[in-house]
Input
Amino acid sequence: MSIELATPTFSNEQICAHRGASGSYPENTRAAFDAAASVGAGWIETDIQCLADGELVIFHDDHLGRTTSGSAKVTLLSWPDMAGLDIGGWKGDAFASERPLRCEDLIAWQAETSDRPGIVWEVKCDDDPAAVDAAVTAVTQRLADIGDHRCIVSSFSRDVLSALRPRLPEIPMALIAEALPEDGVAFCREHGLEGIHLDGHQVSHDSARAVLEASLALRCYTINDVADAQRLAALGASMVMTDFPERFLNEH
Output
């Protein structure tokens, strides 16, 4: 399957492929990440969850069922339960061979060539203390002393971010929210985060200014319309996350 390329509008570093090139390819799969790299996305965004055996699987939903068979809660499964699942066939028969990846698999993918995108890791986690501790331990084990791995760690969970920050002091981190919370900037300053990821459709001139005046990076999700992305760039957003990176970039 090929991606139709657009007239270049943005720099590579401004464009982050949301779960890979997930508009045209099954999300969070090698096929989607390869496609994002092929059109020149500077970053990919993906989701990691801690399984019951401590493995970190790349998977968005809390439960199986939307992109694969089954209905189990993901965090109650072990890696052998996940490893053989078809997570691509829902998007078309051509993708039926796609299988789940682990965090270290995607790190290895990034290292295969020098021009692979950076990775925005979204740590998905319940706020149950045991779940937070398991996720923080697993993420720390995989990302500590990782060398040239170019990444940003992000989460909706403030407990996860505040626990990870001292354990991974060199890695950029960002709070995710929908609209800018009243205390969002203060939280980022208090915990040494360097960015905020917001729903781009809810970003206003005032909220963008509040983020930027605090010397925080403003990154926005999930933007599939070029005009919307241009508006956000004009407001100072340094990155837009999109399901269709090919609409924004042309490597040729």
Remarks:
- The longest strand covers residues 43-50.
- Residues 52 and 76 are 5 Å apart (CA to CA).
